[in-house]
Amino acid sequence: MMREDGGSRFQPIGGHPSAPDLQDACKTTASAGACSAPAPVRADQRWPGPPRHNKDGSSRLESTNTSDWDEAQRQLRDRLDARDNNTLNIIRKGRQLTFNEWVDFFSTNYSKPPMRAVKTHEANENALKTLRPVFGTSKLADIDATQIESHLRNRLQQKRHARRKAGIVELALLKPASVHQEFRVLRRILSVALKKKLVPVNPCSAVEFPVIVKDLFRPHYMTWSEQVKIEKHAPAYLRNVIRVITETGLRVYKELACMKKEQVDIANKVVFIEDSKTPTGVSEVPLTDIAVRAFQEQLKIAGPGPWLFPSSRRPTQHQKDFKKTWQRTLQRAGVAHFRLYDLRSTYATRLSAGGVADEWVTQMLRQTDAKVFKKYSHMKLQMKREALKRLNRQAGDSAAWKSFDTEDDA
User: Fold this and answer.
1) Which residue from 2, 320, 403, 404 lies 20 to 30 Å from 347 (Cα-Cα)?
2) How far apart are CA 388 and CA 53, in angstroms?
């Protein structure tokens, strides 16, 4: 076994040799041709790790669970670094949980409704079908960026599979966006583990995605002319959805589709969001005149039930999907496809273009992190050109104004 001596040095006790002792022994016997490498270690022998201290101050040795000397030394260096960084307890917790055990807890407490939407949970479960076989038996603290990057490269070389009448067939290679979605799920799982102090860092933060994912996280800005064309070909309820989201920034399915009539206060021009994606999303949202008229029109066609957007097939339930109607509407309007959720980014961009401060736009979006605002609001090239027209090249320069006056007088 080994005992700590002077901080980071460990001396052998109880008959186990240290690395210098093994090397010296080999050098001595190598001259006689007996050996040229350290003496072999028995399969049942385990090198000890750094000692742990009890409450009374006495030391308690901890096994590295390996018979390989180099691996034991690597673990020793990692433990000493963790001790110096005050993360040793975190690493020990992470070594007690496997990825599968943590994922089971994560799925139950942080993925299922009401914590997350049903479709978010389904996306998480689909991603875990490929993540569990790779990382399932690994300890949380043992997962590193190199393993994750290797897995991503392997996934990008795999093909999609589809079930047909003849059986399962292979299709084209997986799209980078699909693999990136799996990476996002893994990053989220490890991010929660980091917050719970089960890992010292999130290894996904050091991962470089192997390929460039085109058009990822670039919301489409819907111009006013596009909105007019889309509304012209949209059914009444979808037209109201478009106007409400672009005037309020409500989330499509988590806030608007499941909204009840009692949440709308036309007299005070406000809607009450009782449940949202984030805690800051639960609040009162003010309405513009356009949004008020859209809510009034929707109340007229909603029917007698409690839902503002009742399902056409099941009137006792609310509408859960606008995608098919949205796609058909864009086709009839002759507008290139973009997500209905991008109307939320259109709302943010219009606020920003109107001169609203970024801090206020973040509050209007009801986001917890101001960085998210950058995802939703983006100035188009034409907006930048319009801003350049307001450039005052003579601001604060009185001499320039005098020169212009002189030229005019001449």
Assistant:
1) 320
2) 67
71 versus 86: the higher-pLDDT residue is: 71
Same domain, 269 and 363: yes
- Whether 260 and 307 have beta carbons less than 8 Å apart is answered as yes
Radius of gyration, alpha carbons of the chain:
31
- Alpha carbons 39 and 17: distance in angstroms, whole number: 10
Provide the residue range defining the domain that includes 238: 224-387
Same-domain check for residues 228 and 341? yes
Tell me, yes or no, whether 345 and 302 share the same domain. Answer: yes
Contacts of 267 (CB under 8 A, 6+ apart): none
CB distance 321 to 309 below 8 Å: no
Task: Specify whether 157 is located in the same domain as 65.
Answer: no
Structural domain count, the chain? 3
Predicted confidence (pLDDT) per residue in 145-165, tens digit: 999 999 999 999 999 888 888
Run of H or E residues at 367: none
pTM above 0.85, yes or no: no
